[in-house]
């Protein structure tokens, strides 16, 4: 599947913390660079995510903000 | 300002394409790694974004998806 | 690619209206049922979307609201 | 109330799973077609959602992505 | 319609700037307090928005961030 | 940090309800006007949020909808 979302980062699952209905997944997308995703618990299970597994972080451009110092 | 958004990536503005009311901003957040943001034209102007300027990409964790091959 | 987004609907592109930086894409996901997506113009081009083409609408569960009468 | 969100699908609540602060609500919006929403637990209670009740799934166009095979 | 979105603010349309496919709508939701919405041009037309008209700004709780100084 | 998000409202934390991985934070942004945010539990802790503390609600314009009666 090829998706319209402009931002896709290949990484490795660093941690998964499962809540009642959601799960927080942290991916390392470059050396020392992490990206945190909050997805449903059901999706974390369906994708079979586990620490060390390769995965992508995907973000739609309209959900990205820009900031300056 | 310290914000709850979990994902903040320091980078450099690589391109800005301004539309009627929105603007597409591409940041290089690591060597060869780009992040595309769609923000309002007014925000791009207010922040004084220009190619080569340092800026951050900011993403809320609930807007990040995870994918696998 | 298998994505965490819970909602994926197979459909057909019914219309594309291209703006300066964004594009509005309407998919027919069932007989008489349409779904409207606002994506970047660059993504619409990269995916080669055109009227009549098969495509999917994808939505993260945290972006879905519920309403009652 | 008439809302700007472009996507409204009438359906029936098929399941509700309540977490600590969020709730996952699955609506059947057409025969065999489901839509999953993650809303606050407080909203699920305020709307009085229960299995079998009629409800709408509502999605803003800028939150819809498009994908192709 | 009663919606799960937790944040609804009654206000008055202060300005509308229409682009090719999107429209930026600024509402005054309290004396001196403005809220900016980016919606589709088609929605702005469908709702018949015009300067001075009463309208609501609606935001899902998962789209609200918190910041401190 | 100066952010592209168009909507920033100064307020006071009125309540925090912490779940397994998320936290619901209610800010009073004007007399009698509340705004509810769903952020990660980790962010609520990192920002040191507590009832009575000054904080801002921040919302991207593309996440704001408009409704009329």
Protein described:
The structure is a homohexamer of 69-residue chains. Chain A is mainly beta. Chain A has a single domain, classed as Beta Barrel (OB fold (Dihydrolipoamide Acetyltransferase, E2P)), CATH 2.40.50. The first copy, chain A, is 9% helix and 59% strand. Chain A has one helix and six strands. Chain A has one helix spanning 41-46, and strands at residues 2-3, 7-18, 22-30, 33-40, 54-59, 65-68. Chain A has a four-stranded antiparallel sheet with strand order 4-3-2-5. In chain A, strand 3 (22-30) and strand 4 form a beta hairpin. The radius of gyration of chain A is 13 Å and the shape is globular. In chain A, 52% of the residues are buried. The mean pLDDT of chain A is 97. At the A-B interface, strand 2, strand 3, strand 4, strand 5 and strand 6 of A face strand 2, strand 3, strand 4, strand 5 and strand 6 of B. Strand 6 of chain E pairs antiparallel with strand 5 of chain F, so a sheet runs across the interface.
Strand content of chain A: over 45%
Q: Please name the two chains that share the biggest interface, counting residues whose Cβ lies under 8 Å from a Cβ on the partner chain.
A: A-B, 38 and 38 residues
Number of strands of chain A: 6
**Number of helices, counting only DSSP H or I runs of 4 residues or more of chain A:** 1
Computed over alpha carbons, the radius of gyration of chain A is: 13 Å
The biggest beta sheet of chain A is recorded as:
4 strands, antiparallel
CATH fold description of chain A: OB fold (Dihydrolipoamide Acetyltransferase, E2P)
Helix content of chain A: under 10%
Quaternary class: homohexamer
Uncertain parts of chain A: none
- CATH architecture annotation of chain A: Beta Barrel
- Determine the mean pLDDT of chain A: 97
In whole angstroms, the N-to-C terminal distance of chain A is 37 Å
Overall outline of chain A: globular
Task: Give the strand order, joined by hyphens, for the main sheet of chain A.
Answer: 4-3-2-5
